[in-house]
Structure formats: C-alpha cells, structure tokens
Amino acid sequence: MSPVAEFDFIIVGAGSAGCLLANRLSANPDHHVLLIEAGGADDWFWIKVPVGYLYTIANPRTDWCFITEADPGLAGRSILYARGRVIGGSSSINAMIHMRGQASDYELWAQATGDDRWLWGGSDGPGETLAIYKDLENYFGGPDQWHGTSGEIRVERPRVRWKILDAWQAAAAEVGIAPIDEFNRGDNAGSAYFHVNQRRGRRWSMADSFLHPIAHRPNLTVYTQTHALRLLMDDEVHEHQRRGAWITARHRATGLRLLKNGHTIDVRARQEVILSAGAIGSPHLMQVSGLGPAALLARHHVPVAVDLPGIGENLQDHLQLRTVYQIGGARTVNTLYRNWITRGGMGLQYLLMRSGPMTMPPSTLGAFAKSDPALGSPDLEWHVQPLSLPKFGEPLHSFAAITPSVCNVRPSSRGHVRMADADPLTAPKILCNYLSTEADRVAAVTGLRMTRQIMAVPALARYRPQELLPGSQLVSDDDLQKAAGELGTTIFHPVGTCAMGAFDPHGIPRSADTVLDTDCRVYRVAGLRVVDASAMPTITSGNTNAPVMLIAERAARAILG
Known about the structure:
Layout: E1 2-12, H1 16-26, E2 33-36, H2 45-48, H3 53-56, E3 66-67, E4 80-81, H4 103-113, H5 129-136, E5 137-139, E6 153-155, H6 163-174, E7 190-193, E8 198-199, E9 202-203, H7 206-211, E10 220-223, E11 226-234, E12 251-260, E13 263-275, H8 278-288, E14 291-292, H9 294-299, E15 306-307, E16 319-322, E17 324-326, H10 333-337, H11 340-353, E18 365-369, E19 380-385, E20 401-408, E21 416-418, E22 429-431, H12 438-455, E23 466-469, H13 477-487, E24 488-490, E25 525-526, E26 528-530, H14 545-560
Parallel strand pairs: 1-2, 1-13, 2-10, 5-6, 12-25, 13-26, 14-15
Antiparallel strand pairs: 3-4, 7-18, 8-9, 11-12, 12-13, 16-20, 16-24, 17-20, 17-23, 18-19, 19-20, 21-22
C-alpha cells in the first residue's frame, strides 16, 4: 500500500460534471483538488472530429462498453450501453446536442425536492434554472433573454444542412409540428435543427470547456488510468458537517481506495468526496462500498454501512425506435459514403473549411410533439438522420435512406443498476425494463404511427419514401408494440440511480427511494455527494448533458457557499 495522499476535495470521474467541479473548486488556491479518471487522455483525433463518435463508441479506449441484462421489453435482447471512459467522459463521445429540456421537467424536480430554485425561472416566474444555463453558455447568436455568452460551454448551430431533412421538416409542419428557431426556451413543441457543443466544427467537450483551460493550476491534481475501488469512511461526524441530508449522518466519507498503475493507494479528503462517475458508475461504487439496499449488499457479502434502498434503483432512459425509409431524388450520407471520390471530398471539406458531413452529430434535425393533445407539454421527440444502417457499428445501407427515430421523453418504466459481486472491477448488472408500463407501450405505438403520418404527406412525396423498418405490413397496435421491442435501443441517456428528493426538518427523506438532498448530499454519509446524472429524480425531455451541467453548477455553488 502506497503512502496516503491528502486533498481537500476528491472528485471521482472526469466526465461532464467532474470537469466543472474541478474548475470551480480549484478556483480557490487554498483548495487542493484531486480529479480521478479511469480512462485516459482525450487527445485522440477521433474524439475531436464530430463524426468520430462512430469510432469512440463501443471502443474500450474511450467507452466502458457496458452490456445490459436481457431485457423483456426488448424481446429478451441485451444491448450496448455506452458510457465515456476518457477525460471528458460521455461528453467526449456523445451526440454533442445541446438540449436543456423543458420547463415542465424542472417543475417535476421542484416537486420531488421541495426546492423551487429548480423551476425554470426567467420572466415567467420563480426559479434559477434558466439563469444558470445562461451563465454556463457561450452562445453563437449573442446574449438575449434566452442565452448568455460569458460561459464556458460553446453552443453553435450545425455546419451542414440536408435537402431531405428540410423536406422532412416541411412534412412535419403539414401534420401540425411547426418549425421553430430552437428547442431551448422552455417549450420544445415544434421542429428545428439541433444546436451543438462544437467550436468551429470540432467537438467542444466539457473537458474543453472546464478542465483544459485550468489544468495548469498547481492546486489541481488529475489521476488518469485510475480506478476507484472503494469509499473510505469512519464514524466521526463533526457537528459543522451536519446539514441537509447529513443531519442524521452515522458515517463520514474520508477518502478512497484506488487502483493506479497496478498499485493500490489510499487518498484522503479533508472536506468532501464527490462522486461524478455517472448513472452507472456512481451507484456501483457506493454499493461495493457498503451503501445501498441491505438485501443486495448481504447477498454479495458486503458489510452494510448504510441501508439506502434507492441506490441503483429508479434507472430511467429514453428508448429510441429507429424507423428507416428508403428515398430517392436526394443525397444522404449513404450515397456520399459509398463513392470514394465523394468520401474524399467530405474529408477535404472538413480539413479545409471545418464544414460538411464530418461535422455532423449523430442526429441533425429534431422535432417534439404530444402523443395526447391533453398533455401540458410534448412527450415525443424525433431525431432525424440523413443516413441509415442495419444497426450501430454496421456499414451504412447501399441505397439512399433516412432514419427518423422517435422516443418517449417521459418514460414511466424504471430499471436498476446492481453490483454483480463484491469485486469493484466487475461490471454491474444493468436492467432498463424498457416498455414495462402500459403508458410507455401506448406512447411507442403512437410515436410509430405519427412517424408514418409525417412520411406520408405531400411534402415528401417527390422523394418516394418506402418504409423498411418496422415495415408497412405491420398495421395493428399489437404488431407495432412487438416491433418497438424488437427494434428499440438506448439513446444513451441513463439517469436517476441516486435520486434527489425532499427531506423533513429532521433530515429524514420523505420517500424511501431518495438518496440525495437538493444539494446532492448523500443521506447519512457526511462529506459525500453524488453530482452527475444519477441525481435526477426524473429524466429531462431530450439529451441529458446540459442538465448534468446545471446540476454540477448548482452543487459547486452549494459547496463553495
């Protein structure tokens, strides 16, 4: 065992939240901060090129390459569950789509936590969510009532458009989904090209935003290729630490046991340990450390430090239903890529002008609508891609086609993340339980039917769309529900596995599933926070990276305050 190193704050995970926390906490030169990352540096060429996600996802160099348990809702299939394992975390391999979610999402957070600061805010009412988003952004269009320009997160418009996607947007308008300027104003109803986290045609990860500019600080230490094995805790809780979820603390987090360069070392935290390892990594580390459902821990012979039944439960994700339509009369990535001359032209366009298809995120055009007119805000989202392939990782189809994928952004199905055994190096078991509720099955069928409606209107007629997936021969609700399970897959938005919740004045959670208070403090373990997508009580409407940054910024302000 190597000698113990001491820091004020130790952050596990150099992903989106971890990079922001390292930036904010090390801004005070009196704070000695350690940032721990299991993966390596983010200096690989394909991380910076936007289309490089094709090479970084499912690659152990940059991805944990988790595989889910066989899911009854997916016809018994197991699927790849990509999570970033590199500096920048999932923001180094994700879709780069900048999506805040809707104001109604944050109403649910305010209800869950009893904290109205989570409300959207702005001129429409109380809350600070919009204000924090504006503080974080460096928006291409300049400052206005919706956006700021003084922040670190660069937000740009896409650098490529497609005639077939413009036609799809016009078709959506024919069925009542109107074009709008953008999705980030609190109500996403409509269609628009996604805004992206890029700078001049290159991926702009949260490491680019928050970590690399301050990596020179002498009070910031970064360990890469370092795996967190266990939390270290003792029973001494100081009175000044007894706040929020820590009022009834029986233990105090004092540090971590790490595996670094083949050696086991201990590191100590004088103030706090902060887990930012994501919705899979954070609950798993807690469970192998003795925090979690007592029955699960006992089954794997892990001594129970604190029985917290919510750790690893409440897993939520967006299930993407990929429909494929062959088209004619318009270019798609399929047709460009199959010709070596046009393929070379795409590369040359990127190298010379930082534009064209190589700057493209996985999905370019989006749309939001309601599955039921009685709903207060949209619950269906489309990601429309000017390409198609049998499944991720396989070659593109040889013919021109598009992929309008639809997902229910407010799923009621809940899954879990559970340790497989007591070894922290063994991957946890992930079960999403997609389509396990009647409401989610109804939304899936509605989404597939609405996609067919859009594809059948006159605006797309000249392109002669032919449905290949799920297949026009499938007509009944039962057929479409079965197809949803057979073609559905994750869109890589896991959240909720260490959920925030409300506490009474005595520091007791009002729900047995609550793990964190509104400042991300872990119930009954002083000096320990979880600051990442795990903290979301309910999933937001759309991509989850921006909401993670909201959580991280609020947590940083709470710690420093």
